[in-house]
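re: ur question from yesterday

yeah so i grabbed the chain u mentioned. its 335 aa long if i counted rite. heres the sequnce exactly as i have it in my notes:
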Amino acid sequence: MPVANLDGILERQLARTLERFDGAEVGLPGLGDKYEGKVRDCYSRDGQRIIVVTDRLSAFDVVLGTIPFKGQVLNQIAQHWFEATSEVAPNHVLSVPDPNVTIARECEPLPVEFVMRSYLTGTTSTSIWRAYERGDRTFCGHNLPEGLRQHEKLPAAILTPSTKAAKGEHDESVSREQLLERGVIGEQDFERGAAIAKALFAFGQERAAERGLILVDTKYELGKTPDGDIVVIDEIHTPDSSRYWYRDSYEQRMAAGEAPRSLDKEYVRRWMVDTHGYRGDGPPPPLTDEVRVEAARRYIEIFETVTGREFVPDESEPLARIADNLTKSTATRQS
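ran it thru and got these structure tokens back, copy pasting raw so excuse formatting
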């Protein structure tokens, strides 16, 4: 069931998106050591990590602006998938005390993103389509056949690892052999991570198909617990980490030479490229309110399509609400 008066809600929320969360500024100075990522503001203390998912939108490895309710959508989609995949691979989640917050076990992140791909697509400089378009027929150690079209399905799903660039820099797609030769990651950790990524991707594609979607590609962040176990961290199968297409129109649009109908942040990437020619170099052009609202609609639609549940936006002032829920959660853990 669609949210009543969604457009009005989204337009009101434009002025009160969650751009950042600072514990000290909301009366919680003891949350721990802070780390600010492209989208998440994290605090580490006593073996736990508090992850606040903001409304920031990152693409081309650059923060482009904020999208209403994006943090709530991401956090709750991740929660859905973490619960659904708990028997496929262990994860770091301990609790979800707020629509924008996850409390997790503290883990040492592996220095590699495990990217799974099933289609020849993408708009970023590290995408498999851009490499193929340049004439490359080997991508991250995988040989690609001649004659493939943009958005066409690959012969099989492939793992295409990526380095983790510092904030403001660009990731690099590399092969398993390159990672091992550079000493970026040990062979045992890589093989375990690869096995987890392949199992999760197969599971995600199957579940997405049941919901009328194609899980085109995705990236997994993995971490190591103090006991040495490798678990899934950060997020899983969200619109930020994954590309989704509508399954029912894929063949028809390919036959017509049209791009598949997408349900992810590819909308914003394409707007940046088509309207401004922007691909991540230099300061990004500002997002218009119209684009921000449309992007929010798409995030909410993917939540409802993937989970099968109605999205219920929490319109309360986010900083005060998060501070209150974190205070209650901390009190519960200490009691």
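noticed a couple things. The mean pLDDT is 93. also The longest helix spans residues 187-210.
anyway ttyl
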